[in-house]
Structures are given as C-alpha cells and as structure tokens.
TrEMBL record:
Sequence similarity: Belongs to the archaeal Rpo3/eukaryotic RPB3 RNA polymerase subunit family.
Keyword Cytoplasm annotated: yes
Keywords: 3Fe-4S, Cytoplasm, DNA-directed RNA polymerase, Iron, Iron-sulfur, Metal-binding, Nucleotidyltransferase, Transcription, Transferase
Binding site residues for [3Fe-4S] cluster: C200, C203, C206
Cofactor note: Binds 1 [3Fe-4S] cluster.
Location relative to the cell: Cytoplasm
Gene that encodes it: rpo3
Annotated organism of origin: candidate division MSBL1 archaeon SCGC-AAA382M17
Organism taxonomic ancestry: Archaea, Methanobacteriati, Methanobacteriota, candidate division MSBL1
Protein name in UniProt: DNA-directed RNA polymerase subunit Rpo3
EC number, UniProt record: 2.7.7.6
Length: 260
C-alpha cells in the first residue's frame, strides 16, 4: 500500500492511498466518524437560567460545541471513579453571567485549560436586563457512534478518477469543456487536457456531452480521503488514532479466530 499526503492545512488533511480496496478506505472513514474518542459536553447542571432558551436547548447547544481534546483522559467506562466526575475522566466548564449581553463560549471557565471550546466566540445565549445564567457543564470522552457530539471530524473518500480522452475523435472541444461542472477541462493546441484530475467528481457530465471522445471511471485500487477536523484535535492525530483502533481490532479478530 502506498500513502501520499496531498494537502494539510487549516484543520484539513487530504491524502491518497493506493493498492487497496473500497472496504479498507471505508473502514478508515467509519472509524474516524464513530470510534475516535473526543471530548464533548455530556451533562449540564443548570443553577439559574432566566434566558428565553430552555434548559434542554441550552444543553444541546453546549453539547454541539467542539472542545479541544488533549491526550491522557480516560473514558468514563474505564475510570475507577465509576461516576464520570473525577479529574481523570471529566472536565468542568462553569459559567456565571448577567445581562444584558451575549454570553459566549469564552465566558466559560474550564477546570483544565487544555480543554476549551474550539470556537471561543460561539454564542451560548442572549441575556436581557436583569437576566442571569449559571451552570456547570461536564465534558467527557465519547464516541461518534453514540452521538454526533463526539464526532471529531467530517471524513469522506472517493475513487481516484480515471479520464481517458480520444484526441483523434474531435476537432472542436468547446462542448466538452463547457460540460464539466468543476472546470477542469481545457483545450490547448487542438487537444483536450485535464488541469486537475483529483477535482473530478466522476459525475459523467463530460461523457454525456462527448460520448465519442471521453470515458470517465474510478480506479478501484486508489482513493482520495478527506478529513476535516472539528478542531477537537489535529486531522493527522485523528487519522493516526483511527488506524491504531483498526489495527487493534484486526489483532483481536485474529486472536479469536485462532481459537476456533
């Protein structure tokens, strides 16, 4: 198997893998979405809430705020405290505010300065004159398969496009060029060229416009994988942890089949 990093910036990682199959590419995607643990607000204890927002909606909004996730925390199910409230498996984010004004994520105080909202300007609630808001939000590690709050990233993959062009089939390529919605086809010196193969979505629009000259398909052994982190952790770390989880599962499967 070959791996090549295509792009890595602004919390997004794009890489290609070859000499593999769709099942493996999809297993990476599913593991990232469902089984890489990250911190998220799991419980909210509301002491005062005079805002127009119900407590349940407030808790839902807080749960959807991505939190930075350092290494070292335990899953509540693996912690000796058994209650999910000790410093080894949870973080308290407290807030006490009075109106008027907009209460934002940065107004919360965390018991661990390494676990904070990714977007500190995210609004929590608007308070009017005389209104107050006071709560303690409890963050814990969790899995995306249990709730979307714990999804660390948006992950997707696609086949590496394969575009075959019969340069002898046409003299005029204008119709083919205009048909491509991604604008990656251009005519030069009487020939049709692909300017950015990886941008092709294999939609087939160019084939419909020029069926006599163009064939588009996907390579079933090579894939482009995109990982866009929520900010909870770097995309590189997300992929690394996903691969470690997959490796552990394969080892466990192998051990169990050996006993059959």
């Amino acid at each position: 198997m070959e791996v090549e990093i295509r792009d890595s910036e602004d919390g997004t990682l794009r890489f290609s893998i070859s000499e593999t199959n769709p099942a493996f590419a999809n297993s990476i995607r599913r593991t990232i979405l469902q089984e890489v643990p990250v911190m998220a607000i799991d419980e909210v204890e509301v002491a005062a809430n005079d805002s127009v927002m119900d407590d349940e909606i407030l808790a839902h909004r807080l749960g959807q705020m991505p939190l930075t996730t350092p290494e070292g925390y335990l899953l509540p199910s693996k912690c000796d405290c058994r209650e999910g409230r000790c410093s080894n498996c949870s973080v308290d984010l407290t807030l006490e505010a009075e109106g008027p004004g907009v209460v934002r994520a940065s107004d919360m105080e965390s018991s661990d300065t390494e676990v904070i909202p990714v977007q500190d300007k995210s609004p929590i609630a608007r308070l009017g004159d005389g209104q107050s808001l006071k709560f303690t939000a409890i963050a814990r590690l969790g899995f995306g398969k249990d709730h979307a709050n714990w999804q660390p990233a948006v992950a997707s993959y696609k086949y590496m496009p394969v575009i075959n062009i019969d340069q002898e089939a046409r003299d005029d390529w204008e119709e083919c060029v205009e048909a491509c919605p991604k604008g990656i086809l251009e005519e030069s010196d009487g020939e049709l060229n692909v300017t950015d193969l990886e941008e092709c979505t294999i939609c087939g629009a160019c084939v419909e416009a020029c069926p006599d000259a163009i064939e588009v398909d996907g390579d079933p052994t090579k894939f482009i994988i995109n990982v866009e982190s929520t900010g909870a952790m770097s995309p590189e770390r997300i992929v690394r942890e996903a691969l470690e989880i997959l490796s552990d599962k394969c080892d466990e499967f192998s051990e169990k089949t050996d006993k059959l």
